[in-house]
Amino acid sequence: MSDKINMYGLSLEELEEQMEKLGQKKFRAKQLYSWLYRFNVDSFDDMTDISKSFREVLKERYTLTLPKIYTKQMSDDGTIKLLLELEDGHKVETVLMHYFYGDSVCVSSEVGCNMGCKFCASGLLKKVRGLDASEMMGQVLIINQLLRPLKRKVTHVVVMGTGEPFDNYDNVMSFIKAVNSQFGLDIGARHITVSTAGVVPGILKYGKEGLQINLAISLHAPLDEVRNKLMPINQAYPLDQVMAAVDQYFADSNRQVTFEYIMIKDLNDTDECLKALIDLIKPRHGFVNLIPYNEVMENDFRRSSNNRVHKFHDALLKAGIKSTIRKEFGSDIDAACGQLRARYEHK
Ligand code: SAH
Question: Domain 5-63, what architecture?
Answer without folding.
Answer: Orthogonal Bundle (1.10)
